[in-house]
Amino acid sequence: MANDLTTELQKALSNRIMVLDGAMGTTIRGYELNEDDARGQRFKENHEDLLNNGDILSLSKPDVIADIHKRFYLAGSDICETNTFSATTLAQSEFFVEDPRKTGGIKSPEFFQSEVLDNQFLKDLVWELNVRSVELAQQEAEKISNDTGRKRYVAGAIGPLTVSLTNVVDPNDTAFRPVTFEQVKQSYRHQIDALISADCDILMVETIFDSLNAKAALVAIKESGTTAPVIISAAVGRGGETMISAQKVQALWHAVSHINPLAVGLNCSLGPDLMKPFLEDLGKVATSHISCYPNAGLPNPLAPTGFDLEPTHMNNYMSDFAKNGLLNLAGGCCGNTPEHIAAIAKALENHPPRPVPTLS
Questions:
Q1: Among 168, 196, 256, 276, fewest CB within 10 Å belongs to which?
Q2: Are 144 and 151 contacting, i.e. CB atoms less than 8 angstroms apart?
Q3: Residue 302: exposed, middle, or buried by beta-carbon count in 10 A (0-12, 13-18, 19+)?
């Protein structure tokens, strides 16, 4: 079935520019939830605040998450990402495991193994988060597909972590890392297995700041044996480098091409205007489809969404990207509401997709 889905999506991406969804976090803000909403009854006694743990809302406020998926599909999204950006044991430990540094300890591989990766409560919670999040997106995809006659898809979001395999955390011991490659892979594999068990259509390794972390996720996908289509998307800085590991987009492609991704692209980052040259660079080397979902400009605390650009601006930028033959799949990251996605979908309507080069 997954192989059939890959062929189906490859054909669709070659025929038209498909539309991704927008920012889950930005859109959640519009519901004006509070800490009690995030906790619900189930997590009422949790020792850490949960309002910034957007993934937990799949359990405590599933109606909100389902409504957000519905709004993005109605705005024109062909693919919506699951609410699982931080649904790994390593990321969720920030909210459910006591930080050893509060009592004079350190975060180390030993800590992460015993207190996080082997923590049965955390493993069960993360599994449930991923499965429930897929279900919420699937139910809305099926409804919209049936109502419109156009098939919609669900991508399992596999986001970055709160720990890095690249960053030096102790200047007195530059070889030390709080986690090992195997531990990062183990955490990602747990999430991937949950997403696959819930039959999500696509696996999406996204917002890559640290290429080595992402590599662990891709190895976990490979070792899982799944044939589900994979999309890989990096966030880059002003020089076109991934923000922690400083890997340029051309090098990124060569590091991930072995997985034969359905699409590779850029997201988040600096807004569409500053992203464009790096998207062009990626398009020169990638032999897969190209995806792009930039932030709605730079952060602006005075703007309603927290970002500068309004729907009309995103329409203009993404229309330009499409006109220049850069896109197969496009949407929006931070600051992009369903209204932004509707404007992006409109911008892409009359433009052909980027032709995928073939290897000579």
A1: 168
A2: no
A3: exposed
Instruction: Render pLDDT for 259-290 as a digit per residue (tens, 0 to 9).
Output: 999 999 999 988 999 999 999 999 999 999 99
- What six digits make up the tokens of 168? 């030096």
Q: What is the pTM of this model?
A: 0.96
Three-state SS for 205?
A: strand
**Domain 2-348's class?**
alpha beta
45-53: long-range contacts, CB 8 A cutoff, minimum separation 24: 46/95, 46/96, 47/98, 48/94, 48/95, 48/96, 49/95, 50/95, 53/86, 53/92, 53/95
Q: Could you give the CA distance from residue 334 to residue 295 in angstroms, rounded to a whole number?
A: 5
Which spans in the chain are helix H? 2-15, 24-29, 35-39, 57-60, 62-75, 89-96, 109-111, 120-148, 181-197, 211-224, 249-256, 272-285, 311-323, 338-348
Residue type, 306: G
> Is the sign of the CA dihedral 274, 336, 152, 315 positive or negative?
negative
The residue written with tokens 């590091």 in the block is 255
In terms of DSSP H, where are the helices of 149-263? 181-197, 211-224, 249-256
Q: What is the residue whose two structure tokens read 């970002």? A: 307
Domain ranges of the chain: 2-348
Q: Count other C-beta atoms under 10 Å from residue 260's C-beta.
A: 11
**Residue ranges of the chain with per-residue pLDDT less than 50:** 1, 360
